[in-house]
Amino acid sequence: MLDGPIPGGEGLAPASISPEACPALVLNADFRPLSYFPLSLWHWQTALKAVFLDRVQVVAEYDRIVRSPTTEIRLPSVIALKEYVEQGRWPAFTRFNLFLRDRFRCQYCGGRDELTFDHVVPRAHGGRTTWTNVTTACAPCNLRKGGRTPEEAHMHPLTRPWRPTRHQLMEAGRAFPPNYLHESWRDYLYWDSELEP
Ligand SMILES: [Zn+2]
Global pTM? Predict the structure, then answer.
């Protein structure tokens, strides 16, 4: 059933750790993560179920073994979908994706705290709630700008609001690695990033 490569001698998770601490990194069929930020991770039970249903290929495993009365298997640490999941070119316009586009920084002062979103051209002036008119702003800057245009407030965003592609958001997400990275994930998360100048 599990015919993926068995990692050896790589200092993987000790057998004593809880399965709960062994999520599987989920790759698309092209071996790129389904998502970088948040990172596409499945709970170990979900991952095992997908393995048994033959929907995924096991790419790497933890040392951690789980046992049932009849069998024992290693928990997968990296799995790849057998069928490619098409992802749209344009990500949804959400608060989270907006912050991600702006790298979680206020676009007026560069601060990282108390982030809100600001209509660059205020709604009262006909500004719309779109990628190209909304920017990340900290609460103090948002308050200071109020209902004024950038010209009136003498406050211009560091980057003009723009509509990102999914690829651009994924690139932004790579700048925010999660707290916990299993070493078997690294090849799939950063294998191409070191080639950048
Ligand atoms: Zn600010």
Answer: 0.66
